Amino acid sequence: MRITILGAGGFLGRKLAARLAADGALGGRPIERLVLFDLAFPPAPEARFPIEHLSGDLAELPEVAIPDGTDVIFHLAAVVSAAAEADYELGMRVNLRGTERVIALCRRLSRPPRVIFTSSIASFSGGQNAVLGDDARQVPANSYGAEKAASELLLQNASRLSFLDAVNLRLPTVIVRPGRPNQAASSFVSAIIREPLLGLPAELPVSEDFAVWVASPRTVVEWLLHAAMLDSGSMGLDRGVNPPGLSVSVAQMLAALEAARPGARALVRRVDDARIGAIVATWPAAFVAERARRLGFAEHEPLRDVVRDFIAEDLAPTRAEQGLAVATEGGAAGG
Asked: Which terminus has fewer CB within 10 Å in the chain: N or C?
């Protein structure tokens, strides 16, 4: 099994690479080689198989990133939502032309690889009252969502033409993201849990009754691995999947935070942000996701487990990355 991860330097790419390295196989087939590609040189885990590191511009992806014999490509690379909205050309270059480049390289291979593309719920609209079915139209209200939806159509067509074999996963907002805040419009959803657990203040740009469709890094990695080995013949022409995430309100997230670390909720304060609010207000708060269940995608764990896993797996590395002192077990204000 020969695998490439595009966007391997991001936190999902790092977790996916670590999981593949630990397992040493995918779908029962031993991994022979793993290529990690990102804008900056991506880190690599210890593995029993060769790992190649590549860096560069996705829109100019080199042929060596997808060599002949590649079986699976995880296409995670993207310019995030608020950044794509602020810089139209950058978003189009990476999110759309980058995907066109992936398709072009797949066309030259001797056999079509499986491509797992991380699309987004930002490719939909409908707002807080929407509960979208599997046949809901993608009507994005932001540049990032439009670029993701357009990429899905290109990959779907490339699958029809047998250039590749795509599964387009429309990921929920992923929480809790470790590390520093990024330029995603949804960055606050992780920040209101992550920052208080680090003893830092966090700003909340929406009301506490605001609901979000979310997924944990742990579950997303499971979905990615499942998509890699899925029998796509049952999908037909439609390669889009809305995986079964979790619809939670900000109030529920703050309650989970307080349960995990008493006193931490006091570090979250409401600060209106019209720019962020305008983007996230269009995103649907829930999906039916019945098709994903029929295709075997795992159900999501409870919110309390999401927070617990972040504390167990990612809190200490995030603290180190941000240069903070080690917190004591006793309180919320460590650091």
From this structure: C
Rounded to 5 degrees, φ, ψ at 214 are -125, 165
Virtual torsion, Cα 232, 235, 241, 244, nearest 10 deg: -90
- Show the 3-state SS of 226-286: HHHHCCHHHHCCCCEECCCCEEEEHHHHHHHHHHHCCCHHHHEEECCCHHHHHHHCCCCCE
Query: Omega into 79 within 30° of 0, i.e. cis?
Result: no
Neighbours of 131 (CB within 10 A): 13
Q: Which residues contact 217 (CB under 8 A, 6 or more apart)?
A: 11, 12, 15, 174, 176, 177, 314
Q: Please, where are the H alpha helices in the chain?
A: 11-23, 81-86, 88-91, 98-107, 143-160, 187-197, 217-229, 250-260, 274-280, 290-294, 303-313, 315-321
How confident is the model at residue 185, as a pLDDT? 76
Which of the following is catalytic: 37, 74, 144, 210?
144
Cα angle: 164, vertex 101, 47; to 5 degrees: 70
- CA 327, CA 335: separation in Å to the nearest integer? 6
Say how far apart CA 249 and CA 34 lie, in whole Å: 38
Mean pLDDT by 10 residues, the chain (335 residues): 97 96 97 96 90 96 98 96 90 97 98 98 92 96 96 98 98 91 82 96 94 96 98 95 97 97 96 87 93 97 96 83 48 29
Catalytic annotation on 144? yes
Largest CA distance in the chain: 59
What is the distance between the terminal CA atoms of the chain, rounded to a whole angstrom? 44
- Taken in order of first residue, the domains within the chain and their CATH numbers are 2-172+216-241 (3.40.50.720), 187-212+245-285+301-321 (3.90.25.10)
pTM over cut 0.85:
yes
The predicted structure's pLDDT at residue 293: 97
Q: CA 59 to CA 206: how far, in whole Å?
A: 35
CA-CA distance, 105 to 103, in Å (whole number)?
A: 5
Closest CA to 224 of 169, 173, 174: 169
